[in-house]
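[job 0412] stage=complex_fold ligand=PRP status=START
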Amino acid sequence: MLNMALPKGRLGEKAYALLSSAGYGSGEYSDIGRKLSFCDEKSGVNYFWVKPADVAVYVERGAADVGVVGKDILEEECPDVYELNDLKIGKCKMCVAACKDFKDDFSRPLRVATKFVHSAEEYYASIGRRITVIKLNGSVELAPVLGLSDVIFDIVETGSTLRANGLKVVEEVSEISARFIVNKSSYKFKSRDITQMSEKLNGVVETC
Ligand code: PRP
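[job 0412] stage=complex_fold status=DONE, emitting structure tokens
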């Protein structure tokens, strides 16, 4: 059996639909209810639904052989896993955003509110801008509005959260999408099953 960690929520639904098109999965995602795991004997896959930010932890430590995780989380956590496929779902952008009247004041460090501390530090180091990071766990769009930060460093998908809070994109930093990741020793010991899943996923991604 292959143990697979999927992110709960919207991305997990899309990933599960992709797996179903590739010949895996059985039944509807909506049937899962509150149960966090489900065994598909026919295709030989055990699915676990975990918090999106935890998928890479399960896979890195071998509790899951494979998983689906956003590139934003891979860039932030740098887990020791193989990244095999770009699944081209969950597409969004990592952006810097600020209030509409924002002007950078280079005489002092820029105050950056974000969930993605490591990625923000890397980005600003790469452009040589001094920053003070303000770590938040969500609703980061409020930070510049309330004067807690100058900018936010966050993912933007439709842009509606920014618009609703009167913010604008200042810089597009990177493109994000979901990736199929693999535990390093599982890749050796379950290589046939994992390669097959990766190839089948590639097949459906290409035709999407
Ligand atoms: C994410 C992200 C933005 C929003 C962007 O938040 O942090 O707030 O989605 O999407 P949009 O461009 O389509 O509006 P999430 O829904 O994960 O909630 P959070 O505030 O708890 O991070």
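The mean pLDDT is 94.
[job 0412] exit 0
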